[in-house]
Amino acid sequence: MDGNALLSIGELARRTGLGVKTIRYYSDRGIVTPVARTPAGYRRYGADAVARLGLVRTLRELGLGLDTIRKVADRELPLPDVAAAHVEALEAQIRVLRLRQALLAAVAERRLTPEETDLMHQLARLTDDERRRLVADFLHAVFDGLDLPGVARTLTPDLPGAPDAEQTRAWAEWAALAQDPGFRTALRRTVADLAAEHPQGGVPRRNFAAAVRDLVAPALAAGLDPASPDADPVVAALTAEHARPDGLLPRLRSLNDPRRDRYVQLLAVINGWPAPESPGPALDWAAEAVRVRTP
Questions:
Q1: Averaged pLDDT score across all residues of the chain
Q2: Residues 217-247: pLDDT tens digits?
Q3: Cα 30 to chain center, whole Å?
Q4: How far apart, in Å, are the Cα atoms of 168 and each of 125, 160, 249?
Q5: pTM for this structure?
Q6: Angle at the Cα of 122 (from 118 to 127), degrees rounded to 5?
Q7: Contacts 24+ apart (CB under 8 A), 263-266
Q8: Would you call 26 helix, strand, or coil by DSSP?
């Protein structure tokens, strides 16, 4: 074809795959301009209109607005600068979509009430400063006056700057759990027991929940009945491991709080840690073994 030949809108539509109405609209907006008109008033376009419309189509598919596209096509705006700004806007949209996906999945799977859904939505939308204040308030309620900075660090969520959907969902659930007064009280009691087993300046003891898990693991693996006489040595070892001469059964029951187990699972998701092994089965077995031997 002659490079100087003029093209009708119909010819442009065939060459670009765009509709005639679309090309006419772009022409009216000044994005592609006719270079001449026929005596009857029909528009005619130069051969460069094909490439220009190809660029317009690409940028539209990438989500750019028509005014921006016209300025890029006319070299009024550098395309790399426009692309960088558009990337930033898309990242913000992606974060919003991840949040919606996470919350809707939580609503469906946990069968949340409208009130619980509203709370999780509010918690998930907190700013960085608001999240930090919430975490600090929770840690203060649990650890105030107890010298266990290392333990506090292991119980602190650290949401990344660009969390994925699973982390966003875990954060919202963690925040709701952390604001539960009953859970705060129960966790503080557990932490206070731990502090009592780690006197300042003294020799630190092994974490009791971890000790229970390790002592009971062989019995669980062997399928040993907690009421069996063969379980007596395990109960004796648990009693020796416990820091106080009494209160073993209440301690085992308080440790086996499903909320605490869930807290640790959520923390692992938020912080990107390996999924923890639940101490629940070991604590259940130990509590039953102690109960049947308690007068």
A1: 82
A2: 999 999 999 999 999 999 999 988 886 657 8
A3: 45
A4: 9, 10, 37
A5: 0.56
A6: 170
A7: 263/155, 263/174, 263/177, 263/178, 263/183, 263/187, 266/157, 266/170, 266/171, 266/173, 266/174, 266/177
A8: helix
